[in-house]
Amino acid sequence: MKNTNIMYVKERKLKSGEIVYELRCSVKNIITNKFDNKVKTVRIPKDIIGKKERNKYLLDKQIKWKEELERQAKGIALPKDNNITFCDYAQSWVDDILVFDKTAVSHYENSVNNMKIFKEKFGVLKLKDINLNIVQNFCKWLNNRKKITTTVTVIKSVKDYIKKERLKIVTVYTNAGISERTMDAASKVGEHINIDSAKKICNYLNVNINEFFDIKIKEEQYSLSANKHVISMLSSILRKAVKENYIDKNYASSEYIDKICGTVGEKQIIIEEEELSSLVKCIENEQDIRKKTAFTIALALGLRGTEIAGLEWKDFDFEKNTVSIQRDSICRVGHKAITRATKNKTSNRTLTMPEYVAEVIKDYRTWWLGQKELLGDYFGDTDRLFINAKRENMTSDTISYWLKKFLKENKLKNITLHSLRHTNITMQIINGVDCKTVSIRAGHSNISTTMNIYSHYASRTDKSASEVINSVLYNKKVMN
């Protein structure tokens, strides 16, 4: 039979600096008579140093993999490496994340961090030896693990000290290795900054860190979401190992493991009428039309920050007053935004906009078109509502930064951009909008997601429904 396999090799540098090799092969399946695209990541052992030896190792891997693919295509069972360690297998799983989806940056970075846990707890344990007892003991450890958190609060302005010493602010933050934004934060009493940034500033200025910052250290459990992500990753790795016949069972699946625990942070939601009224009024009076529009969309439509950053003008139908959510603009790679599909299939949705919101967005479009005409070619060829100073696609990080400054300037409750989404969803539930509609507008994967997160507020509408039934059927009013 003619060899129809075509092998491509691409050198790839990981964020850690390590060099790996991406093997791609197109294999003709004799059963379907179609070509299947296959990808494999190869790491060259550190003890193989010489260029000739490294090339020989890589070529050997290509030959063996090609033979393996040919056997697969013919439906022949493949012999497995029974001595492969869990961590080596898991690392290969991590390396392939960005190979199959270049936009899965957050997933990749979280998985890299989780690998540190696996290497510590599983060490050189072989994949075939992962059993129920080992996984359950790992879950117990995960539930009980704790971390040290450090909160650094500014008690004295760094900029005031710099000016007093007749130094240049730009020189200080550049040489200290921090950003201008961090320097601004370090100069506002009551603001919080990273401990490493505080140390860099004080080391450069040669001052006592306690003179400018109040440092509090406490021990606490990891969050429920962080622990669930670790178990989910473990389960995904073992599920793949079962599929590839390395092991018989996935002992990290929900049918085997005990309940995963962890802290659950209280959602920041504005439900008090006075607070909400003040927030709305301040947004309406915001002079920067970009911020006014972004905050209005977040609060009135309940979009995720990544969805707001991904909005384009073609998504709007002003005759029907609707907007279609089609994409996310997510955290940058090399300081550039990446556009990807929305979080899940149900996140692709079309929402009817309140009339006021539509008018705000129309006003913003008029301003946006004016800027495009004024700046000409410098504005760039873009259809995005929000772009940064370099005329590049924006991420939600910038909108979050806008909100933080806006809340402080207006002396409002300190909340996050995602809190505006929570507030939108909660307001709908409290005011009697049925949960299915709320779930669809929120873009949740199913109604149970909405109910699990907002069940506390749904109980209020249940009580209201009871009062309505009491009044209608029995003509009795509830006495307060």
Brief summary:
The chain is of the alpha+beta class and 480 residues long. The protein has helices spanning 51-73, 86-95, 97-100, 105-122, 132-144, 158-164, 169-176, 180-185, 195-205, 209-212, 224-243, 273-284, 289-301, 305-309, 355-375, 396-409, 417-430, 435-442, 447-474; strands spanning 6-13, 19-29, 34-42, 146-154, 192-193, 213-221, 316-317, 322-325, 328-333, 336-340, 349-352. A three-stranded antiparallel beta sheet has the order 1-2-3, with helices on one face. A three-stranded antiparallel beta sheet has the order 5-4-6. Strands 7-8-11 form a three-stranded antiparallel beta sheet, with no helix packed on it.
Physical arrangement of strands within the biggest beta sheet: 1-2-3
Euclidean distance between termini CA atoms: 86 Å
Report the portion of residues in β strands.
5-15%
Give Rg in angstroms.
27 Å
Give unreliable regions as ranges: none
Structural class: alpha+beta
Specify the biggest β-sheet: 3 strands, antiparallel
SSE succession: EEEHHHHHEHHHEHHEHHHHEEEEEHHHHH
Percent of residues in helical segments? Answer: 40-55%
Mean pLDDT value: 85
- Note the total helix count: 19
General form: globular
SS elements, strand count: 11
